[in-house]
Write a structure and sequence with these properties.
The chain is α/β, with parallel strands linked by helices and 174 residues long. The protein is built from four helices and six strands; from the N terminus they run E-E-H-E-E-E-H-H-E-H.
């Protein structure tokens, strides 16, 4: 007759920061429990180490931007309108990815915008609308009417939304 064998697996979940002296040493290395030393060598013992991933806002933004960039590509007939937002400034570029060329750009560091607005805590929605207007005018001067909007991993809300709406109002098609 055939012999039926059963396998048992010991699963232990370890969370960082939680120290159970029965399971880990002072270095955090898993220790074998007393009942495990009598286990049969053919029976596997599984140890799972579950850790939560701690990402910063910047890393999350880069991950979102890479997901967006998989879908949005600037071509010669429809270049990419790329937005970068920092705490102090707002930058916009129109990029032809096939040639790796910047066709037009606008930012809050340019003199017309920086002299027009006096802001101390970063660009506001009004400043973003003005940047959208300037980038739309410079694109239309160069014959660019259609662009692919790349929000740069930022949520389509607030300054990003105001910039896009202003660029659309002044003649750019997304």
């Amino acid at each position: 007759m055939g012999m039926a064998t059963t396998m048992t697996m010991n699963m232990r979940l370890q969370f960082p920061g939680v120290v159970n002296h029965n399971q880990t040493s002072f270095l955090g290395v898993p220790m074998r429990l007393p009942y495990e030393k009598y286990s049969h060598p053919s029976v596997p013992s599984l140890h799972f180490n579950v850790q939560a991933k701690a990402h910063t806002r910047r890393e999350d933004c880069h991950a979102r931007h890479s997901r967006v960039r998989k879908k949005v590509e600037g071509k010669q007939d429809r270049p990419r309108l790329c937005v970068f937002r920092s705490n102090k400034h707002l930058y916009v570029q129109v990029i032809d990815d096939s040639k790796m060329h910047t066709l037009a750009s606008a930012s809050t560091m340019q003199k017309p915008i920086s002299e027009e607005f006096n802001y101390s805590s970063g660009p506001t929605i009004e400043v973003a609308k003005r940047v959208g207007e300037i980038i739309a005018k410079s694109c239309l001067e160069k014959g660019i009417t259609k662009v692919a909007f790349d929000r740069g991993g930022y949520p389509y809300h607030g300054r990003i939304e105001a910039l896009a709406a202003s660029a659309r109002e002044h003649g750019l098609q997304f």
